[in-house]
Write a structure and sequence with these properties.
2 helices; repeat; CalX-like_sf; Calx_beta
């Protein structure tokens, strides 16, 4: 009986460790953004290469207000920092009309240093500057892959 109890304890511990250590899916890291009473916008994560424009997508579902809506955003350093790794956007606006996918673009800079993947954030903010949702942008170096 002791042998079975030890096996069950070890199995439960292994399962718990697996659940805790698994990376969260992009949708869990991203955020839901207000866009109207019958509308849901969700920011998505992005993977980009150095020295390229990168699209950060926002998926819109439901009924968008007739006049559309505007999402304010800004970038924030992570392991990648501006201006060496990407061009910062201290304040930007994304106009959204209709349903479907819309996107904003950020420029990922490049350098001569061979690097592992780095990240920075696109934060969607309200008028007071409070973060409503975040998209994580992963920067990949061509030389490292």
């Amino acid at each position: 009986m002791t042998r079975i109890a030890r096996w069950l304890s070890a199995s439960a511990l292994a399962l718990l460790a697996t659940i805790v250590l698994l990376p969260q899916p992009a949708s869990a890291a991203a955020g839901n953004l207000p866009c109207g009473s019958d509308c849901l916008a969700q920011s998505l994560d992005a993977v980009c290469w150095e020295k390229e424009w990168c699209a950060v997508k926002v998926v819109v579902k439901g009924t968008v207000p007739a006049a559309g809506f505007v999402l304010s955003y800004r970038t924030a350093d992570g392991t990648a920092s501006a201006p060496g790794d990407y061009v910062a956007v201290p304040s930007g606006e994304l106009s959204v009309t209709g349903e479907g996918v819309t996107q904003l673009r950020v420029f990922v800079a490049g350098d001569a240093v061979r690097e592992r993947d780095e990240t920075f954030a696109v934060e969607f903010v309200d008028r007071e500057g409070r973060v409503l949702g975040t998209s994580t942008v992963t920067v990949r170096d061509h030389a490292a892959h």
